[in-house]
Write a structure and sequence with these properties.
about 450 residues; alpha/beta; Monooxygenase; 14-stranded parallel sheet; two-stranded parallel ribbon; 16 strands; about 15% strand; globular; LRR_dom_sf; F-box_dom
Amino acid sequence: MVEVQCNLGIQSVASTMDQSLLDLPDDVLLAVLAYLSPVELLACRVLCRRLRDLCLHRELWKTAHVRSVVGDRGVARAALRLAPCLRRVFFGDLGPISSLVASTECAVTELSVLVRLDTEVAPATAIVQKFATLGGLKSLDLLLGMSLEIDTAYDLLEAVYRLTCLRELKISVCQNSELGDPRRDGARVRSSLVKLSYSRFQDPFLELLLTTHGATLEEVALLTGDSLPVNLLAAMPRLRSLTCHMSNELVYSHGLSRLETLHLNASDRFFTPNALEFFRRAPNLRTVSFSVPRQDPASPLQALAASPSARVLEVLNLRWGAPHLMDLTWLAGFIPRFPSLRSLSLDTSLLRVDLDGLLQSVTPTSAPSLTALRMTSSGCPHAWLHRSAVQELLTRNARLHLHVGGDIPRQCSCEWCSRGCHAGLRGTLSRRAMASHRRTAGCPSGCCMWP
């Protein structure tokens, strides 16, 4: 296999390619070129006429990502001028490149725009409208910075609201000002959004989006705020996934009984009574994430285990939000209550606790469906993997994959790092899935046999 590195200004590889890669048919050569980055594809274009055309093939660019930021505009400029399409473009520096966008014919699927100043509103509006006109735009991520006067952003918000091509919309507002209703004529566009992520609960523009796209929305993430628009959410016939902060307004209703995914970005101090009641009554939850409260930490799992969702729950993610000492022996008793559980994630990096007892409770009998266990250990994860409880866990559960969060410290002085064993884990541990078997069909990409 011939490895070719294409860098700007380097022409010496041309003879190598003349003797090898250029003898390949177009479809095979395209498969090789698919491994190159955008900057490498643009560099290879200058090597010969055949590569000039092949390096602009649509299949090579429909998964490409480029960024237009201060100090790094060159690749974005070239791609917008030459490439037929792009998967994703991030505009973090609007002024110098906005004139090029006006003439581009490059279709973009996912667009991210950072608007920091009032003077950037007009270029941002033109960019959004241009890529919507070219077709293919499905996702928009709009970040409104702290220095922006919200009153000046209404042209941009109106342009975003009138887009009927979008399937995903994310709006992040880095200030306390509300986004009002930007419509000047009061008209409402047709429903098209499937996913909506918004940075505040109380906001007229949010209510407008929820009302307009309620018929098609399937995933809603409300990232900050105090007042949850439960009535609007309950009226959405397709809503299956909700992400929100802990709120007293999270009240169970028939309309929310269709939820399959619930992520609660709560503090670890308490769990509201309404949230506990929601857990007890929800019938279809398959993925649940929350922070374990310090006060009565077992109460959320008790409510979930007593609910109709207990028999269908497949993914459970638990977090501990602040450093403290907590005994996790209570957690072991809940694992058998969820017979369909496939993935269990425990962020225990902030806990000062021995996890061996919990690991010993995971067996093919207590967790018959479990194939993924994600844990974040305090201290060196390499040393933790060498614990006998971890090795016994993998041996006992033949189908299990253990994912360890974090990485091995560079200057670790633990017994195992000092020995120099498993040096290949350094820098790659977060991508590994430890198991007692060799990788087979159906295993995750990072599956590797341990020890």
